[in-house]
Amino acid sequence: MSALPVLLLVHGAWHGPWCWEQLIDELPDVDVRTVALPSSGTGGGGDAGALGDLRDDAAVVAHAVAEIDGPVVVVAHSYGGVPVTEALGSAANVRRVVYLCAFQLDAGESVLSAVGGTPPPWWDVREDDGTVAALDPEQVFYGDVEPGLRARAVAQVGLQSLAAFSQPLTQAAWHTLPSTYVICEADGAIPPFAQEAMSGRARDVRRLDASHSPFLSRPAELAALLREELGR
């Protein structure tokens, strides 16, 4: 039996590789890699002026995949679906993209256009420095997460580059790569009806009874699902 592909985890907006720790603990026999997207700040924002944009994020994802010698399955969470979609159309070693309650958009679309052109009320858009803060992350991101872990996660939520939300995709990798969409049915950030619509672009659709952050609230269940995706 051949070894499993490498699993590359791409976090969403306002987050960082820290969000995957509980999930990685459930996958001790899997070669798991992560990236840190330049568009996301750390620990309360950091230097807002240093935040990158969608193109910077896509370059980081493309580099991470190119560094993997062998097959890889990429998991994109939330906004992470956008740079993954932009970056991987010509990546020969990617076996599948798993969109985890993520933006599975087409060329010409952006996160902002996908939410109707107007920022949701929980986006605190700061035009002066080009960043966006997340209001009420306790409920928007972590509605079903255990209180202690939720508090630790909230403390690490950073700022997000507004440009990353505004820039349109120039290509869409899911046209050429197999993809699975995982709908999180209790999501407070991307409404399930919007996920249902985007999931029509994926070859396969899975479901979790979870909030926007199943890697924190249901890591064992998510790990089991990803094992199945790796074994395809």
Can you put this structure into words, describing what you see?
- The structure is a single chain.
- This protein is of the alpha/beta class and 232 residues long.
- The protein is built from ten helices and nine strands.
- The strands form two sheets. The protein has a six-stranded parallel beta sheet, sandwiched between helices.
- Helix 3 links the parallel strand 3 and strand 4.
- 47% of the residues are buried.
How big is the Rg?
16 Å
User: If helices are DSSP runs of H or I spanning 4 or more residues, what is the number of helices?
Assistant: 10
Order of helices and strands: EHEHEHEHEEHHEHEHEHH
CA(first)-CA(last) distance: 12 Å
Quaternary status: single chain
Strand content: 15-25%
> How many β-strand stretches?
9
What are its keywords?
232 residues; alpha/beta; globular; six-stranded parallel sheet; 10 helices; 9 strands; three-stranded antiparallel sheet; single chain
Summarize the structure in short.
This protein is of the alpha/beta class.
Topology:
Elements: E1 6-10, H1 21-25, E2 32-34, H2 54-66, E3 72-77, H3 81-87, E4 94-100, H4 111-114, E5 123-126, E6 131-134, H5 137-140, H6 147-156, E7 160-161, H7 162-166, E8 179-184, H8 192-199, E9 204-208, H9 214-217, H10 219-230
Parallel strand pairs: 1-2, 1-3, 3-4, 4-8, 8-9
Antiparallel strand pairs: 5-6, 6-7
Helix pairs in contact: 2-3
